[in-house]
Design goal:
By secondary structure, the protein is an alpha/beta fold. It has 9 helices and 11 strands. The chain folds into 2 domains: 7-120, Rossmann fold; 125-216, 2-Layer Sandwich (Alpha-Beta Plaits).
């Protein structure tokens, strides 16, 4: 692995693990993908930095991969027992950040107890995003950052068309920070107050859950 950039380890290549590994690599990150299934390793090999067939619950196999060098590990194994076991081993080996996939709230609580730094619910979160998009016509996409904050991509409210960010005073009136404006294929990151808003724009905004919900209503 090259450079000093953050290095990612993805353990378990189900739908979630494969998607995370591919997308991290597409973003230019170093990614080591590990799974016991040879077919999955063969499929993902062209789309990650390195793909290795190994039993992710085997402590010696993990040590042989030199995983101490990795900054972030994503635990995406298919069952409760193995995800808990792997999380414990990773933390004992000194991995700085462990992100683990949970199947339900009880599973999540156990993962946090044994050291997971972040727990995700891919199926639940996907369902939530789809449901919100169906009932909120202005919502394009949504990403939960924490229990309090989220990032949302929204279509431009009709009343904002032709105004600038400054005249709309988005932060004071709506409690939101506009991170970027997308116009077609072009992104304007950290737009200035004089940025004019057009009908085809979508906005990437950061804010509290309630503030974003209020805007969407």
């Amino acid at each position: 692995m090259k450079g000093k950039q953050t290095q990612f380890l993805v353990l378990g290549l189900g739908l979630f693990g494969e998607s995370v590994a591919r997308n991290l690599f597409a973003l230019g990150k170093d990614v080591l993908a590990v799974d016991q299934n040879a077919a999955l390793i063969e499929d993902i090999a062209p789309y990650v930095t390195q793909a290795v067939q190994a039993d992710v619950t085997d402590e010696e196999a993990l040590r042989a991969l030199g995983i101490r060098d990795f900054d972030v590990a994503v635990v995406s194994t298919g069952d409760v027992r193995s995800s808990i076991l792997v999380t414990v081993m990773l933390k004992e080996m000194g991995i700085k950040t462990v992100v683990a996939k949970a199947l339900d709230e009880l599973h999540a609580r156990v993962l946090k107890k044994v050291g997971a730094d972040r727990v995700v619910f891919p199926e639940r979160d996907t369902g939530m995003r789809i449901a919100k998009a169906l009932v909120s016509p202005h919502l394009v996409d949504l990403m939960e950052l924490s229990d309090d904050y989220r990032i949302a991509e929204i279509t431009l409210p009709e009343k904002w068309e032709g105004h600038t960010l400054g005249t709309m005073d988005v932060r004071r009136r709506f409690g939101l920070n506009v991170l970027a404006i997308r116009r077609g294929e072009h992104f304007r990151v950290s737009p200035a107050a004089e940025a004019e808003l057009q009908a085809e724009d979508t906005l990437l905004v950061l804010g509290k859950h309630q503030d974003i919900d209020n805007l969407l209503r």
